[in-house]
Write a structure and sequence with these properties.
single chain; mainly beta; 39 strands; 2 helices; globular; binds (Z)-L-Arabinonhydroximo-1,4-lactone
Length: 542
């Protein structure tokens, strides 16, 4: 059978997976984004549909005032005797904790803190019913960097026994992390990532006959690494193993896809899948020791199943938001609302803006594809200086780009702004605005193009931004690019709202039909800025 990697494109890093019967569940890390830790369901490990989030309440996840790439680091999901456990770290909050649920779609419990330091916690139940907590370095004094284990009471989170046991420091790569323990036959296997999450990221394994060690490193480590290759998938690491109901093993792990040269990535670290087999000495072999490709052919049957398709247009016809939508940090109920009967999403002009860590009226989703059309229609009449609302692409506080309606000389005008570090470029776009406006972002691998679409007219290009300037390599951090709806009063008190009627997210699929149809009708407006040279040429798009 064949499948396509990444199985979860876009910012879905640090995947962890578990199986219950023939159902698989997967979680990923979320940092400053709320709700935290999306949870996906699949019957074949390839098609994943999101069924909820593990951290949906502020009492579970307080992200107030935190900087981008703080918050929630790598989670682990496990199932034991009727209960799901999701264990993770709030790096700018309570540290290591877990939550539990009988229904993985939620609600999940309040956090149960665990008093062991380090990041990337994982849980393991032995066949005698005892449970163990593993995390990377304790960050306490002079203990050796590596993976530590301690017995845990999973009802209370209380750590048992005399103290943490040092298990392994890996094969010598920096940041031994992402530990997961498994039992197969008489062996305890300890899977870890090392080398840091950049280009030298990799997965290594050790094993022992005793859960407390000593752990013996596999002499052929790492079992997964794309380091130093020309492969389109890079930084492969941070994996979790799972056995399917037919007895086949798999690994989910993170990887990145680059654009440009030197290599950069802006879509975040994504979730990949590869088959795992066991050699005669009892060590796991990932994808027959071949690189893991974007197009995979595997010689094993998998249930044929495809998750529900998400419609391109979100018309806000439900009381709740689609699961793809996130806030940056927490967002209070007064700051936004949906009116499902009118099909409207309303965002309050909060004082916080994209540059800061105050509460911000931003509802955004991951940009998951190199090529996509993102478009919205909204109604907004700025009433005071500083009020602005529109369509944004955001990596973090210092790296974002937006097309907005704002007020200048008592009139509504269109504003294009881009920020890369301390460099800010902002100008008024000479396209007339009305009460209702349509804005578009067109993602083309190395460039984001922004358009205003006058009523009954063709899209007019208002500005552009290189995706390189929003990439992880330039912006820093652990996340990926988001696109979404935004409103702000820029520090003032405001009673004004922006009303969003719909939001489209359409990846360029297959023959890119949608792409050609809109590209040929787009026009470019003259600016002193650099986008003049970036007129679309329909002929070059085929
Ligand atoms: C995560 C660590 C890592 O906790 O990056 O790639 C950290 N690996 O294991 C943030 O995702």
């Amino acid at each position: 059978m064949q499948y396509t990697n990444p199985v979860l494109p876009g910012f879905y890093p640090d995947p962890s997976v578990c199986r219950v019967g023939s159902d698989f569940y997967l979680v990923t890390s979320t940092f400053e984004w709320f709700p935290g830790v999306p949870i996906f369901h699949s019957e074949d490990l390839i098609h994943w549909s999101q069924i909820g989030h593990c951290l949906t309440r502020k009492e579970q996840l307080n992200l107030e005032g935190i900087k981008s790439s703080g918050g929630i680091y790598a989670p682990t999901i496990r199932y034991h005797e009727g209960l799901f456990y999701m264990v993770t770290t709030n790096t700018t909050g309570i540290g290591n904790f877990f939550v539990t649920a009988t229904d993985p779609a939620g609600e999940w419990s309040n956090p149960i803190p665990v008093a062991q330091g380090g990041i990337d916690p994982s849980l393991f139940w032995d066949s005698d019913g005892r449970a163990y907590f593993v995390s990377n370095s304790l960050l306490e004094g002079d203990l050796e960097q590596g993976i530590y284990l301690r017995e845990i009471d999973t009802e209370t989170g209380r750590l048992l026994g005399r103290g943490p046991t040092f298990l392994w420091k890996g094969t010598g790569g920096k940041f031994p992390e992402a530990p997961h323990l498994y039992r197969r036959g008489d062996w305890y296997y300890l899977l870890i990532a090392e080398g840091g999450t950049e280009l030298t990221h990799r997965v290594s394994i050790a094993r022992s006959r005793n859960v407390f060690g000593p752990y013996e490193s596999y002499e052929e480590n790492p079992i997964l690494s794309h380091a130093g290759s020309m492969h389109p998938v890079q930084s492969t690491g941070h994996g979790d193993l799972v056995e399917d109901s037919a007895g086949n093993w798999w690994i989910v792990f993170l990887g990145v896809r680059h654009v440009g040269y030197p290599l950069v990535h802006h879509l975040g670290r994504e979730t990949y899948l590869a088959p795992v087999s066991w050699n005669e000495k009892g060590w796991p072999i990932v994808n027959d020791e071949e690189y893991v490709d974007l197009k995979m052919t595997v010689d094993r049957p998998l249930r044929s199943y495809s998750g529900p398709e998400t419609p391109v247009r979100d018309k806000f016809l439900n009381d709740t938001l689609r699961l793809c939508w996130n806030f940056r940090r927490n967002l209070s109920g007064e700051a936004w609302s949906v009116d499902p009967r009118a099909g409207e999403l309303s965002l309050h002009c909060l004082p916080g803006n994209l540059d800061g860590t105050d509460e911000t009226a931003l509802i955004a989703r991951r940009l998951q594809h190199f090529e996509a059309r993102v478009e919205l229609e909204f109604e907004f009449s700025p009433k005071a200086n500083g009020e602005e609302a529109g369509l944004v692409a955001v990596m973090n506080e210092k790296h974002h780009c937006e097309i907005l309606v704002t007020l200048r000389n008592h009139e509504s005008v269109l504003l294009f702004r881009k920020r890369c570090g301390s460099l800010v470029n902002e100008y008024q776009v000479e396209i007339p605005v009305s009460r209702t406006n349509r804005l578009r972002l067109s993602a083309k691998e190395e460039t984001l193009y922004f358009y205003a679409i006058p009523e009954g007219g063709n899209p007019i290009q208002a500005g552009m931004m290189e995706t390189r300037l929003l990439s992880t390599e330039v912006a820093g951090g652990f996340t990926g690019l988001y696109v979404g709806m935004y409103a702000s009063s820029n520090g003032n008190k405001s009673h004004n709202n922006a009303i969003f009627h719909w939001f489209d997210y359409e990846p360029a699929g297959g023959p890119r039909e949608w792409d050609r149809s809109f590209v040929s009708t787009e026009q470019t407006l003259n600016h002193s800025d650099d986008e003049n040279s970036l007129l679309f040429q329909p002929s070059s798009m085929s």
